Amino acid sequence: MREIPSCDTLAVHRSLTASGCNLFAKNSDRDIDESQPLLWFPAKKYPPGEKLRCTYIEIDQVEETCGMIGSKPWWIWGFEHGVNEYGVAIGNEADWSEIPPNDREALLGMDLLRLGLERGKTAYEAMHVIIDLLVRYGQGGSCSYGGPVDDSYHNTFMIADPNEIWLLETVDRHWIAKKITGAHFISNAYSIEEVYDEASDGLVDFAIEKGLHDPRRPFNFAKSFMLIHSRFLSGHLRGSRLARLKANMKEPYRPEHLWAILRDHYEGDTIYSRWSPAAACSASVCMHGSEPAPGHTAATMVVEYRKSGYKEPAFVYWASMCPPCSGFPIPVFNVGYVPEGMGSGTNKYSADSFWWRMKRMQMDVECDYNKYIPLVREAQAELESAFRDAADSALAEAENLFSAGKADEATALLRSVTDDCFARVDQTVRTLTEHIEKDLETNAPEVYRAGFIRNFKEKVGM
Fold first, then answer.
1. Which of 13, 52, 136, 356 is deepest in the core (most CB within 10 A)?
2. Does the annotation count 7 as an active-site position?
3. How far apart are CA 156 and CA 450, in angstroms?
4. DSSP label of 434
5. What's the CA gap between 415 and 18, in Å, rounded?
6. Element (H, E) at 242
7. What is the largest distance, in Å, between two alpha-carbon atoms of the chain?
């Protein structure tokens, strides 16, 4: 079994935010050659008895599904993260346990996540959609394209809506859940211990039967089921870093605080990579693939809920592709729209895919990270400020239009803001790529990652 790419998910209750609204965020870490397009799926009705084909198995379809935005690994039916029209946002994490995962083909964690978004109108309802399907169909199957059947794992889900946040952790077909009332950051390691709100029937007996719990002591889910194995300790390392970043927060959370965390490479810490964050010698929150663990952050989201807006629920889905230290968050609104240009890509380079254009620029930056990342940061500072102002202004105007009964105009306005921001990011990426590659023609450095980058580009046809 190889080590699976990692993920980090952040949720902050409204009691700790500057806006008084919940915040939710995730880095999705996948194989370095796996694109992750962003797509909009409209609500849909189905006839009774309809079947649904997920990544590996077929299940019963429901009669009506919700509209949703999903960040979708190109070959998988499900999502790594997403949000639906009712404001339910979900991110999943791979977890490993002393209980081996199911290697047989079943529902992937990403399938369960999408099903929760399709069928749940609140965080609590989506959580129980996932639970019911987990118990009925099980979880399992390879998580990597063409990978061995033992590339499977158990799943943890962070689930939010404008009002609540829930953490759901699973082991086989058992589960445990806790309502989150503060800030909770997770990274590929169980975190629910003795305090929880709900659990599957027989969970404690299951732990006792497997020799993982002493009935004379209080039941602790994480300590009972967590796999303590050096191969999977990156989640503990990143979890420790997230805990430190959370402890250092001395002011109410804003979306930009979450972006700073998602872009972290241990800056200011003794473990900070000696030559650059892209050295990938240690797994960081912002992941850059390198052998022997070729995983990277393929996509990032921050969901910013709003107290009022153009319609309920109001949120901004800030979407970025590739490691967020090199990415540009694009605002997407709850009007059933994602630019078509953000929705394509496979495991081979294509100049027509925005995801792959982002990936090309990011790999160019990594040829000499310390030299080129300042160019990206300068562009980020300009665009992120402009996009936040544009989003705030458009939401205020859209609210007035909706109140005046001009829903079509409000929707068109918000779509145009997303399109404009996407176009500016796309042009910025093209300009930076051209500039860096021209410089590399005469100033190509001899660096640790040169061989890795060269092999990667050859593999994907870049």
1. 356
2. yes
3. 35
4. H
5. 26
6. helix 234-247
7. 69
In angstroms, the CA 365 to CA 436 distance is: 7
Structural domain of residue 22, as residue ranges? 7-343
The CATH number assigned to the domain holding 13 equals 3.60.60.10
* pLDDT tens-digit readout, 414-462: 999 999 999 999 999 999 999 999 999 998 776 667 778 888 889 999 9
* C-alpha span between 84 and 69 (Å, rounded): 6
Whether 350 is covered by a domain: the verdict is no
H or E stretch at 261: helix 255-262
Token duo for residue 35: 């694109």
65, 107, 114, 129 from 137: Cα distances, Å: 19, 7, 15, 12
Burial 228-242 (b: 16+ CB within 10 A, else e): eeeebbbbebbbebb
Strand 89-95, strand 81-84: pairing: antiparallel
Question: What is the distance between the alpha carbons of residues 312 and 308, in angstroms, rounded to a whole number?
Answer: 7
- CA dist., res. 263 & res. 74, Å (int): 24
Q: What letter would DSSP give residue 139?
A: B
Low-confidence winner among 168-172, 227-231, 446-450 (lowest mean pLDDT): 227-231
Q: Which of 343, 378, 403 is the last residue of a domain?
A: 343
Alpha-carbon dihedral sign for residues 452, 258, 128, 120? negative
Using an 8 Å Cβ cutoff, are 277 and 265 in contact? yes
**Confidence check: pLDDT of 225 > 50:** yes
Q: Among 7, 21, 54, 421, which one carries the catalytic annotation?
A: 7
Give domain status of residue 92, yes or no. Answer: yes
Query: Closest by alpha carbon to 77, among 58, 96, 63, 49?
Result: 58
The total domain count for the chain is: 2
Residues 383 and 257 reside in one and the same domain? no
Is residue 377 in some structural domain?
A: yes
Amino acid at 138: G
Whether the Cβ atoms of residue 89 and residue 159 lie closer than 8 Å to each other = yes
Residue 4 has pLDDT above 70, yes or no: no
**C-alpha radius of gyration, the chain, whole number:** 21
- Structural contact between residues 344 and 350, judged by C-beta atoms closer than 8 angstroms: yes
pLDDT digit string, tens, across residues 31-59: 889 999 999 999 999 999 999 999 999 99
What's the pLDDT band for 103 if we cut at 50, 70, 90?
A: confident
Q: 156 in a domain, yes or no?
A: yes
